Amino acid sequence: MRVVPLALACALTLGLAGCNSIAGKTNTLSDEQIKSQTSGALGYAPSDVSIVSRRTEGTNTYVALKTNDNKEFNCIINGGNLLTLGMTNPPSCARKGEAIRSAPFGG
């Protein structure tokens, strides 16, 4: 399920800056949720992935990861906030240094 309709409704009623502020301040993604979602997208078990860094900007959470076999990835998770009722789109990931090909909505 895509979380775009709720984000779009917010943009139409509050303006994009207001939506991004609300989304960023109400992000509820835990490290465990991030590891679970991103590891699955990368083909690893959550226990095989470590979060190097993370930051939330608006509706997106940007995560740098390192696997137990020393591979590094960057991922974007869209959602996980009040405006999306905690739901997220599947993460978009790429090896460190490569462009993330499929950016999620809201970025």
Q: Your description of this structure?
A:
With 107 residues, the chain is α+β, with helices and mostly antiparallel strands. The chain has one domain (4-95): Nuclear Transport Factor 2, Chain: A. Helices cover 31% and strands 26% of the residues. The protein contains 3 helices and 4 strands. A 4-stranded antiparallel β-sheet has the order 1-2-3-4. Strand 1 and strand 2 (60-67) form a beta hairpin. Helix 1 (4-14) crosses helix 2. The longest helix has 12 residues, at 31-42. It is globular and about 40 Å long. The two termini are 17 Å apart. The mean pLDDT is 82. Keywords: Signal.
Compact summary:
This protein is about 30% helix and about 25% strand. It contains three helices and four strands.
Based on secondary structure, the structural category is: alpha+beta
Radius of gyration: 14 Å
Estimate the mean pLDDT confidence.
Answer: 82
CATH fold label: Nuclear Transport Factor 2, Chain: A
The largest sheet is: 4 strands, antiparallel
Descriptive keywords:
107 residues; signal; Lipoprotein; 4 strands; Nuclear Transport Factor 2, Chain: A; alpha+beta; globular; 31% helix
Describe the protein's topology.
Layout: H1 4-14, H2 16-25, H3 31-42, E1 49-57, E2 60-67, E3 72-78, E4 92-95
Antiparallel strand pairs: 1-2, 2-3, 3-4
Helix pairs in contact: 1-2
Keywords: Signal
Protein name: Lipoprotein
Signal peptide: 1-23
